[in-house]
Backbone:
């Protein structure tokens, strides 16, 4: 026990030293996990130009809106979106509560545990599972379920909690932008209620700055007359592709000056951002690091996983429109905070 | 010309003196347009309790969300909502562009200029007019039209621009809350796009803090390939009654700690706010000043104009639930900034 305690004390001490070292380094360089290169240079040049009073490209503080896709941009999305894992993990409890679903597809396949069969589920199957596991409960029940799941679930590769799969370079970028007066928003195809439960702790982004896909919620009263929200099985906002700029208008009402994505689902958001007048920054994360993370997206001949699709056409638009492509392999010194 | 210039210089000088005087007075009293009484006391007590560190009722800065209805709460709504006047004012141009509407109701009645007939328009007629005059154009066209109209239109009684009909005591309340770390939101049954065009200049409330009724907008491209938004004739969010807390959840994602309204349309918002745990403030503006503004709402035997209805049942709920009723007549020293 003593040995263990001594080891722990030493580990804590080492951890503190490392934290102090990281801070000291960060004072000189706000983006210590980024290698020098076009991506890092593009960010720093943009922020300096935007915040230099009197410069032609100065952006008033109120207009410093930066929007970030989440899955594949702020954290790992491969081999499966965290929210989809959450939905699948909820199926057993759902089937227990509604035994009539046990023999019905797609629940039967999920309950079988047959990975090969599950990989063949169609988009429609996934929507059915999502509706059944994300709605039909009160908002409080849903929030509690997500919070429990996030504290307990671990990803299949690194065995980390999902919020530990946030990309360290992007966390530094969020902090750097905020330190320079930018308001950072998540604009995700994922569920707004889902992401809001952990966005503040994970990314420093408060609930009112999380824009996402959203179902209808209805305001009602419990038996004691106390109001509550019910999550209804009906989609209100599909925050993907053109839905992203549409939701940005609905929820923010300003055109962002900087936007970050990684797939065709983010194309319209980057386009909308970049075609505004004045100084703009648009960046795309390219998953080209099969060793430290994953390599996918047909751009540059990487495999197409259909997740966070990054086809050649998107790459071409990025080049044509002056969007900066972030190579995870070349631009990121480290990917996760917990890397050795 | 010289006389004119001298007069202007004197006026500017006087204006500056008045501003300085107002500031000096405000340093002692953040709510100089409020008479001493239960309403003012309720506000000051709430803000002090919410912001005293270590007190049991302390509210962390991030949770200091205050929501305000607009029409009848922040500015005059009688005899007609400003946005409805805007819609009616647009009918002649609409009929010119689409001559086939000239002979059709309800446009025919509006074009007749017959006030008595117009007063009899049904809610359905008004919806038809609103859809025809608020949608079917790009967002940029709409914003420009509202801005032009606000700069030119004047109300029938005081001949003031509509944004000059903001209540001075409420402007002081907004500023007082913001000075104490509260984030002030408008949550209006009126159109979100409409209110966003002037909310910052009128109330100091930025677009991302305006929540309102919203139509579907679609993202498209012009002939040059530049993206734009189209306002479609389809309602997405009806931000009234239960729609208010629902939209608050959608757009803010936090329960307000303070809410302000004046009608049954605000009832659920106040209820949702007040039933949260910890310190809360809910207030209702009662239009009981027929001399300086208008007196209406059946509570306390005032006439029912159907605008901003304040029935006895709402008054009873306010008393029962500890909501504070603001009497315009007794609680407000002056109502408008330009009053002599």
Residues:
């Amino acid at each position: 026990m003593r040995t263990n305690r001594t080891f722990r004390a030493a580990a804590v001490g080492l951890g503190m030293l490392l934290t102090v070292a990281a801070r000291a380094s960060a004072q000189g360089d706000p983006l210590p996990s980024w290698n020098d290169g076009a991506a890092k240079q593009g960010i720093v040049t943009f922020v300096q130009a935007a915040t230099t009073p009197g410069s032609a490209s100065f952006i008033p503080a109120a207009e410093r809106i930066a929007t970030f896709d989440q899955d594949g941009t702020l954290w790992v999305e491969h081999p499966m979106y965290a929210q989809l894992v959450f939905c699948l993990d909820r199926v057993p409890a759902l089937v227990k509560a509604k035994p009539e679903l046990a023999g019905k597809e797609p629940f039967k396949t999920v309950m079988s545990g047959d990975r090969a069969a599950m990989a063949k589920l169609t988009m429609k199957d996934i929507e059915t599972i999502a509706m059944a596991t994300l709605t039909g409960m009160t908002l409080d029940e849903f929030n509690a379920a997500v919070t429990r799941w996030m504290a307990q679930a671990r990803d299949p590769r690194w065995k980390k909690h999902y919020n530990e799969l946030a990309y360290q370079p992007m966390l530094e970028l969020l902090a750097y932008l905020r330190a320079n007066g930018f308001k950072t928003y998540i604009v995700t195809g994922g569920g707004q209620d889902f992401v809001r439960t952990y966005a503040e702790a994970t990314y420093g982004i408060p609930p009112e700055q999380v824009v996402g896909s959203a179902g209808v919620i209805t305001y009602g009263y419990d038996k004691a007359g106390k109001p509550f929200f019910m999550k209804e099985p009906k989609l209100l906002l599909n925050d993907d592709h053109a839905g992203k700029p549409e939701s940005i208008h609905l929820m923010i009402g300003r055109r962002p000056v900087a936007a970050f994505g990684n797939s065709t689902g983010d194309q319209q958001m980057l386009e909308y951002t970049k075609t505004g007048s004045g100084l703009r920054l648009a960046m795309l994360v390219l998953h080209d690091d099969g060793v430290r993370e994953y390599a996918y997206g047909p751009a540059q001949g990487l495999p197409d996983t259909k997740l966070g699709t990054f086809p050649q056409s998107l790459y071409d638009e990025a080049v044509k429109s002056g969007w900066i492509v972030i190579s995870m392999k070349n631009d990121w010194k480290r990917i996760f905070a917990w890397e050795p």
